[in-house]
Amino acid sequence: MAFPPLIELRGISKRFGGVRALDNVSMTIDRAQIRCLAGENGSGKSTLIKIMSGVYQPDAGEILIDGKAMDQLDPAISIGQGVQVIYQDLSLFPTLKVVENLFLNTFLRERQKIVNWRRGREMAREVLDRLDVDLDLDATVETLPAAGRQIVAIARAVLAEARLIIMDEPTTALTGREVARLFRIVRDLQQQGIAILFVSHKMREMLEISEALTVFRNGRKVAEGPIGEFDERAITRAMTGRDLNTGHFTAPAFDPQATPRLLLEGVSVGDSVHDVSLRLMPGEVVGLSGLIGAGRTRLAKAIFGLRQDVTGRMEVDGRPLAPASVSDAIRAGVAYVPEDRLSEGLFLNRSIRDNAISAAMDRYAPRLWLNHMRARSETGKMFRDMQIAAPGTEVPVSTLSGGNQQRVVIGRWLMTDARLLILNGPTVGVDVGSKEQIHSIIHGLAHDKGLAVLMISDDLPELAANCNRVFTMEDGRLTGEFSGDALTEEALETALASVTRKETA
Amino acid sequence: MKLFSNTDVVIALILVAAMVFIGLINPAFWQLPNIFSLLKSNVVIGLMALGVLLIMISGGIDVSFTAFAVAAMYLVVRTMVALDFDGVIIPFLCATAIGALLGLMNAGIIHKFHMIPLIVTLGTASVVRGLVLGLVGTSNVNINQMPEALIEVGRANIVTLERANGTTFGLSAMIVVYIVIAISIHLILTRTMIGRSVYAYGADPEAAKRVGFKTGRTMIFVYCTAGALAGFAGLLHSSMIWLANPRDFVGLELDVIAAVVLGGASIFGGRGTVMGTVLGVFILVMIQNSLILMGIDTTWQRVVVGGMLICAVAVTALRDRRALV
C-alpha cells in the first residue's frame, strides 16, 4: 500500500462518568473502502462516530488521518479533512428547497455573506449529476419521500468534499428498491474515491454492500475482517456474544378434539379478506406471512374488534366472538400488539406502570379510584417476567430502547389475562439480542399459560424459527400452511416469491 | 398547479377578490382619497409586521414589539420636548436604537436560557410598559407640545391632489419609507446568508447548528431587527397622528400577528415572505377600513380580527401538515 489509510483509530477509549463507552478500540478505513460497523444499541457505535467527527474527544488513543496524527480533532477540523456524518435524522431543512439544502453548507464553509443562487444551483445540479440522480431542485425537502431526502443528505456531504461519509442506519426508512438505489449510489461514490462507513444492524445489507466489517460489543471491538469471512450467524454471534436459537419451536402435543383457542370459519372482512378458516390450539405459536396488502393486518384487526365489516364465524375458547369494539375483544381474551407500537401502542411520555395498566383499566379502577397497590404489584410482576431493563416502573416509556418498549406492550396485554395474543411485526426495530429474548418470553407464555399466539411478520427467518405452523396469505386468502420439517425459511420464500412472480407477470 | 402552490399568489388572489367584493358593496372604497388613506394606514402596522415576520420565520413569536414601540416613541418625544429639540434624523435613529436594544434583551434571554419566545416577550412587554409609565410619565404629549419637525414628517406627501370642492388630499410620503424598508428586508432574507440562516433556524434549529450557522447571531439579528422596526414605527406613528400616548398600541400585537399569518408565514417557522406579509397587512387594514366605511361599530373589528387570525392559522397549519406527509 502506497497510501496510508484514510483514517486510523488507535487504542481509542472514552468514558462517560462511570460508564466505559469505548475501551481500547482500533479501526482503520482505507481510501474508497466500504466498511460496515455493526453492534447492538449501546455497543459504542455512536460514540465512535462522534469521536471521528470531532464532537467528542477521546480519553486515550490517537486518530490519524492520512497517516498524520490529529490531536484535538474538533468538528470543523474533521469536516475540513473530509469526514462527513449523515445522522439518522439527516439534519436537513424541511421547509427549504433542495437546492438550498445542498449549497448552504458549502457557502457557510466559504464564509460567504451574500447568497449567489445561480452558483448554488449550478453546484447542486453538478453534484446530482455526479450521483446520477434526478431530483427537482425547487421542491422543498419536506415534500420528498424518505429516499429522496437521503439522497439530498448524501449529495450535501459530497458537495462538502467528503472523503469519508459515515451513514448512521441509512436504510431504516427505505423500501427494498430504494435500498438498491442507495447501494448503487454508494458504489458510485466508491468509484470516485470516497470511503463509506455504514453503521447498521441489518445483516443482509452488511453482507451485500460492505467489503469489510467491524463488530462492537459493550464498547469493545469483538470481530473484524473482510466481509467474506462472515455469515449471518457469525455476525450475530459477534454482536450478541452468544449463539442464537435457530431451531424450531414445537408446540406441546394437544388433543385434536379439544376446543381451539381461536376458531375462524369462513371469515371475510370487507373486500380485503376472503373466506379464511383456521384454528389455533392453546400453546401454539402460529405465523402468518404474506406480502404487504395481503390482508394480514385487516384480519388481525377484525379479530380485535377494529373492523365492523366482518362476516363468518369467529370463536374464542368455544364462545362466539363478535366484537363490536376493542373492549369487547379484550373482555373475550384477545390481545393485539400493532405494527407501529409508537403511534398505536404506547403512551410514550407516561410511565411503564401507566402504560401497563392502560389496557385493563376496569381491573385497576373498578369504580372511580385507581387501586394503586394492585397496579403497582402487578406491574412489578410483569416488569420482572418480561425482563425489562429500566431503573423502575415509574420511568417514562420514551426513555426505553425499542426492545424494552416492545416488552412493555406485550407485557401489558398479559395483565389483561389474554388467551389469544396477536403480534403484528413483534420485533421491528428491535435489536438482535432483544429479539431473541422477546421470542423466548413469547414461547414461555405459550408453553406455561397455554396462550395461543398469532404472529404476523415480514421476517421469514423469524417466522420459521419461532412458529410451529406458518400460513401464507395472498390477496386476502390463506394459500398455504407449513409445519414440522416442511417449515423452513426457503419454503416460505419460495411460496411468497411465486406470488411476486404472478404479480409482475 | 405550480401557480397555486405559491402562497403569495394565492394571497394576492384573495386580496383582489376581497377588493372587488368590497368595491361592489361600497363604491366609496375605490375613491382615491380612501385608497390613499388606506395605504397610509398600512405603514405602521406593515413595519411592525416585517419584524414579526422575521421572528415567525425563525420559529418564534413576539408580543413585546408594541411595548418597545411605545417605549421608543414616548421616550424620544418626551426627551425632544424637554430639550426643545426639533430635528428628525437623530430622533428616528434614537427610537430605532432603543427598539434594537430592547430586542437584544429578548434575544439574549431566549437564546441563553432556551426559553419559549412567547413567555419571554410577554414578560419583557409587561416590564417595558410598566417602566415607561412608572419612570417616564403617564401624560400624553399633545399636538400643541409635539415637536414641529415630527409633525412635518408625518404630514409630508409625495402626491397632492385637489378635490372638486377645493380641499386637498395626498399620499403620505411614509409609504415610500415603508416600501424601501420592505424591499431591504426582502433582499436581506433572500440574498444574504444571515437571511437564509433565519429560515434554516426556523426549519430546524439543531440542523442549523450542525451545518455551522452561528445561531446566536441569527437570534440577535432577528430580535434586534424586529425591535428596531418597532421603535422606528412607533415614532413614525406618533408623528403621523401628532400625539405621543404612553398607553398606545394596546392590542395591536394581535392585528400585526394576524396580518403576518394571513400573509402565509408559518407559526411553525421556516416559511414566510415579505411579499406575503405586505399583502397580508393590506388585507387586514383594508377589511378594518371597510368595516368603518360600512358604519360597523369598531368593537366588532376585534371580533373580525380575532376570527381572521384563527382562520389564517388554521389554513396555514393545514397547509404545513399536508406538506409534511
UniProtKB/TrEMBL annotation, chain A:
SUPFAM superfamilies: P-loop containing nucleoside triphosphate hydrolases. PROSITE patterns: ABC_TRANSPORTER_1, ABC_TRANSPORTER_2. GO terms for molecular function: ATP binding. The keyword Cell membrane applies. Keywords: ATP-binding, Cell membrane, Membrane, Nucleotide-binding, Repeat, Sugar transport, Translocase, Transport. Residues 7-243, 254-500 form the ABC transporter domain. It comes from the Bacteria. InterPro entries: AAA+_ATPase, ABC_carbohydrate_import_ATPase, ABC_transporter-like_ATP-bd, ABC_transporter-like_CS, P-loop_NTPase. This is Sugar ABC transporter ATP-binding protein. It comes from Roseinatronobacter alkalisoli. The lineage of its organism: Bacteria, Pseudomonadati, Pseudomonadota, Alphaproteobacteria, Rhodobacterales.
Automatic annotation (TrEMBL), chain B:
The chain crosses the membrane at residues 9-29, 35-56, 89-109, 116-136, 169-189, 220-243, 249-268, 275-294, 300-318. Its main location: membrane. This is ABC transporter permease. It is a multi-pass membrane protein. It comes from Roseinatronobacter alkalisoli. InterPro entries: ABC_transp_permease. The keyword DNA damage does not apply. The keyword Membrane applies. Keywords: Cell inner membrane, Cell membrane, Membrane, Transmembrane, Transmembrane helix, Transport. It is found in: Cell membrane. It comes from the Bacteria.
